[in-house]
Amino acid sequence: MHISTRLFVSAALQVVLAAACSSEPVSDAGAGELERPSAYESLPRVQPVYESPLCHDQARCALPPEPHGAVNSNGDAIVGVSSPDLPPVVLVPAATRELIPIGRRGTGPGEYRSPFAQAFDANGDLLLVDPFARRMLRYSSTGASLQTARISLPPAMAQVGSIGNIADGRMHLLGATAPEAKGTAADSARIQLFWLAPDGDAEVRHSLELRLPVFGLGAMIEAPPIFAAHALFWVATGGVVYLARAQTLSVERFDSTGRRDRVAGFAVAGRKVEEADVRRFRERMMPSGAPSAMREAIERQLARRPDRHPAVMRMQRTADGELWLGQTPRVQGDSVEWLVFDAELKPRVRVWLAASDAIIGGTRGRVLIAREGDAGEQDGYWWARLP
């Protein structure tokens, strides 16, 4: 999918967690150890079986760049949209398969700046969290605004991971706290798990202190190198946290008290960075007419690139408890291999998807995949099962 120049500049100025140079061990006593690369190669490799589209009409189901979202038990989906030319957030009801815009960008009731996390509650209401505007928003299943609450997150909270375990009007919210100094890097980050009340009050449940270099908001020269590894994290039912440091094809699980109780995956590093990767990146990020300052900044980042890609680029968890880890696309840039764990974090299968495909979520043994057509046209949202 095309990534616009505007999106690149925005991404470069956001806080990211870079998982390079972590000095923390990959396993604790009793937490488990990573399996050998040969064990990964022995896992079965399957193709998803596409069943039916949740939305399949190019006029109504335009795919955003890098779509993300959530799926509820009924098969309805929220899709976050990052393109200025499309509705910011949409709802796709399984019954009607219509895209319904949810809210809009702004500062009024029901409006937001940049929602980073979405979820459904037990009543079918939609919840959005906007960490930059410090807002929590609630909508009905038809898209009507029900509540806009100011949330009391720490001033240094710069990245929100996910929402989970919505119950009794409260929900878990996972976020990363970055240093207050802008344009600098530190050698540690605090990932905090909150109980977020309906009125917006946030109660810290526990914090994870991790040695993950944090790049603050500042000049583009302070942004992490191109192809650098970034930590990914996810909060699930009961306040369980999943963390992928991205240096190996693996995931760590922390219980509701912040204790690491499981390490699963393989001692498989990301593939080497090839000249074809660099050439493709330049073609995508430096279109003709790009400002010279942008070109120079990108070249500086490329000059600091690591020898290898991250082992994990994407992470998604379904309502059934399956965890999907997406690797770096092949050097041809056409496809990505995903590692699928079951609910007990036992490696299950490897799955090949097109590099442009994105997993929105899953439920009842199915996953919802945003797909592009064979000719690169937008193809909609499709349900798929694994054989």
Could you tell me the radius of gyration in angstroms? 20 Å
**Which sequence of strands runs across the widest sheet?**
2-27-26-25-24
Low-pLDDT segments: 1-29, 180-187, 213-222
Q: What structural category arises from helix and sheet content?
A: mainly beta
Written overview of the protein:
It is a single chain. The chain is mostly beta strands and 387 residues long. The protein is 10% helix and 40% strand. The strands form eight sheets. It has a five-stranded mixed beta sheet, with no helix packed on it. A four-stranded antiparallel beta sheet has the order 3-30-29-28, with no helix packed on it. A four-stranded antiparallel beta sheet has the order 4-5-6-7, with no helix packed on it. The N terminus is likely disordered.
Summarize the structure.
With 387 residues, this protein is mainly beta.
Outline the fold blueprint.
Elements: H1 5-13, E1 16-17, H2 37-41, E2 45-46, E3 49-55, E4 68-71, E5 77-80, E6 89-92, E7 100-101, E8 104-105, E9 111-112, E10 117-120, E11 126-130, E12 135-139, E13 145-150, E14 157-167, E15 170-177, E16 185-186, E17 189-196, E18 202-210, E19 214-215, E20 232-235, E21 241-244, E22 249-254, E23 260-266, H3 275-285, H4 292-303, E24 314-317, E25 323-326, E26 335-341, E27 347-354, E28 358-363, E29 366-372, E30 378-385
Parallel strand pairs: 2-27, 8-9
Antiparallel strand pairs: 1-19, 3-30, 4-5, 5-6, 6-7, 10-11, 11-12, 12-13, 14-15, 15-17, 16-19, 17-18, 20-21, 21-22, 22-23, 24-25, 25-26, 26-27, 28-29, 29-30
Please tag this protein with its features.
4 helices; disordered N terminus; 30 strands; 4-stranded antiparallel β-sheet; about 10% helix; mainly beta
